[in-house]
Amino acid sequence: MTKLPEPINSESTGPHNIKLKNWISCAPFEMLLNMKIIKAEKAKAILSMPFYYDYAQGAGLMHGGAIVSLADTAVVMAIKSILPPQTHFATISLNSKFLYPVKKGIITARAEAKIEGGRTIQGTAIVYNDEDKPILEFQSLFKIAKDRQIKKQPEH
Description:
mainly beta; about 15% helix; single chain; six-stranded antiparallel β-sheet; Thiol Ester Dehydrase, Chain A
């Protein structure tokens, strides 16, 4: 498991000033889910995530929110591979179609991003189980902020 850096105040409800190691790297939430960036270049990305006990829902299957988080993050890394560092953008809509349950193993998301024009980016991803069977189809839209640079939050 990836060890998270010790937070200054884990009880704080924000705002938080996050300092990533690199532009294309995992944020605290992605580290919490043990996501691994395998590749992110030329508007494409591949990420993986293990199915640990903590990611199970009540029936023992991988929680759908965890799977969607991997797909969304994979699209984010594909986008980061084509935007200048520190560009501020966010998911504005997403749609997921679950195809098959996850009972074990490591899942992998393969994502692509396409700038639609202006400040809108379209993202797609397919998530696969460890037998390379598609388990989720994912589509999303992102918007680049008018003020393209990420603003620093005040230190607390």
